[in-house]
Amino acid sequence: MAQTSSTSTPGYRGQARQPRIVCDNLVKIYKIADLEVVALQGLDLAVDPGEMIAIVGASGSGKSTLLNILGGLDVPSAGRIEVAGYDLLNMTESDRVQYRSEVIGFIWQQTARNLLPYLSARENVELPMTLAGAPGFASQAYAEELLQLVGLGERMDHKPTQLSGGEQQRVAIAVSLANGPSVILADEPTGELDTATSGEIFDIFQNIQTSLDVTIVIVTHDVEVSDKVQRTVSIRDGRVSSETLRFEDLDGEGDGMLKAEEFAVLDKAGRLQIPSEFIEELQLERRVRLKLDPDRVNVFPDDSDRKRDRE
Ligand code: ADP
Ligand code: MG
Questions:
Q1: CA 292 to chain centre
Q2: Ligand 2 mean position to 64 CA, how many Å?
Q3: Protein residue with least CA distance to atom 18, ligand 1
Q4: CA of 54 relative to ligand 2 center, distance in Å
Q5: Which residue's alpha carbon is at the smallest distance from atom 22 of ligand 1?
Q6: What are the pLDDT tens digits along the chain (311 aa)?
Q7: Distance in Å, CA 65 to ligand 1 centroid
Q8: Which pTM was predicted?
Q9: Whole-angstrom Cα distance, residue 179 to residue 156?
């Protein structure tokens, strides 16, 4: 029987970099009376510890469904989903409650939904810690630290109504970090903000990502915002259709510049989504011809009708 090399550090294999989020063939079906809506249909996604990604996609493509499932607010119908070692498909209700309060920080689009209106910024940030049983003095000090981290050190005793929309979202980020989560989920957090303020919010997310070991998943419509992450995942019809990676490259003068490249995503069953522009351009329909070359796979329109006509 094959033996693994004895030179590897004991336990190293167990500590090898595991993705913090793994979705495998994830399915979510909503049933309303006799009607079934397939919101996620075989979605695959892996996100590393400390990675920040953006999720984009047309309205109704399944972005919020995915975020709610990741956040333990909704239960998937089938597939596999593991977050920070928790199996979200087979979880007791009490595990789910613990998961939501200890592993996940959630930020909603509606600023008002993130904060309690009658509490100050500081009290809003302290609340999750108090609920989790942290002693008051520890909560106070950490709440102040978090509010400083999001740039609100000077406004800690303001109530939400005394803060701008952008400031309220900053407090919401501090609240989401209060219990030291492994994963921050934000559903269109800048949807109600102007472009400049959105940019500031994303700078804060970047700052958190580098200073705390937290994985950040942000659903956004904002194109400028998705320029600020290394990876943007596009969802179409409940599935990941493409990923855009950003990387630093050198321009002609040898200066660093940010480049982006879009990749199609191949799932485990070998399925690939061809962009709709390509489909329209070549009038691809139902059947296509595939041809393998040494270094590529070619996709051709189905011309069997024309061939038969000629024969
Ligand atoms: P997105 O956030 O990308 O706009 P959603 O995840 O909200 O998309 O919705 C995906 C699909 O699932 C849509 O067709 C939507 O109508 C449906 N859907 C979402 N939530 C529910 C629900 N609670 N009950 C029934 N259908 C739902
Ligand atoms: Mg949505």
A1: 34
A2: 4
A3: 39
A4: 13
A5: 30
A6: 444 443 333 334 445 568 999 999 999 999 988 899 999 999 999 999 999 999 999 999 999 999 999 999 999 999 999 999 999 999 999 999 999 999 999 999 888 889 999 999 999 999 988 888 777 777 889 999 999 999 999 999 999 999 999 999 999 999 999 999 999 999 999 988 888 888 899 999 998 988 888 999 999 987 776 678 889 999 999 999 899 998 888 878 888 887 888 899 888 788 888 888 899 999 998 899 999 999 999 999 988 776 666 66
A7: 6
A8: 0.87
A9: 18
Question: What residues are paired with 16 via a beta bridge?
Answer: none
Which residue's alpha carbon is at the smallest distance from atom 14 of ligand 1?
A: 60
% helix, strand, coil for the chain, step of 5: 35, 30, 35
Pocket test for ligand 1, best of 26, 65, 217 (most atoms within 8 A of CB): 65
Tokens 């999001």 — which residue? 150
Check: CB of residue 175 under 8 Å from CB of residue 208. no
Q: How far is the CA of 43 from the centre of ligand 1 (A)?
A: 15
CB burial of 274-291 (b: ≥16 within 10 Å; e: otherwise) equals: eeeeeeeeeebeeeeeee
Residues around ion ligand 2, judged by CB within 5 A, are: 64
The residue ranges of DSSP E strands in 51-108, in sequence order, are 52-56, 78-83, 86-87, 104-107
Taking alpha carbons only, the member of 20, 16, 39, 32 closest to residue 88 is 20
Using a 6 Å CB cutoff, which residues line ligand 1? 30, 32, 37, 39, 57, 59-65
**For atom 21 of ligand 1, which residue has the closest CA?**
30
First-to-last alpha carbon distance for the chain, in angstroms, is 58
Nearest ligand by distance to the CA of 110 = 2
Q: How many CB atoms lie within 10 A of CB 99?
A: 17
Cα(65) to centroid of ligand 2, in Å? 7
Chain Cα centroid distance, residue 18? 16
Distance of alpha carbon 27 from alpha carbon 87, whole angstroms: 15
